[in-house]
Fold this protein.
Amino acid sequence: MSVVGPPQARPADGLAVDFVVVPDRAQLGEVVRRVRDRRLRTNIGSMAVRELTAQRERALLALDGVKDELEELESVFVAVVEASDEFAREQEIREATRRAEDVLAGFAAPGPVNPEDESDRLANHTLAVVEGYRSLTHQYADKA
């Protein structure tokens, strides 16, 4: 088998053969005669082009499928992120509620009946409730 690539310079008074595969010298001679008689018709790449076109179509179909899968995964990831954000908000609310319940439980705790001590205690509890309210208001305002 012989393989001939494109010539470095095109012949001034002839034709150049870019690619030839022949099993023997007699067939090569026939190819040369046909080229000289201008009877050689080329069918370069028709099968290769068809195969490449088919491969391209298969690749495009596969990419469309991958694109659909990626879009589906993206929506799943978005849902997971939203759920985790909601979970974090619920945890913050639970913690703020627990702190508020602790403060409110302090109101019912037995303590001295001294009015001065009771007024300080009431002021501290009121301040804690107000701070808890501000914290919850701030958390909800940031999330809205």
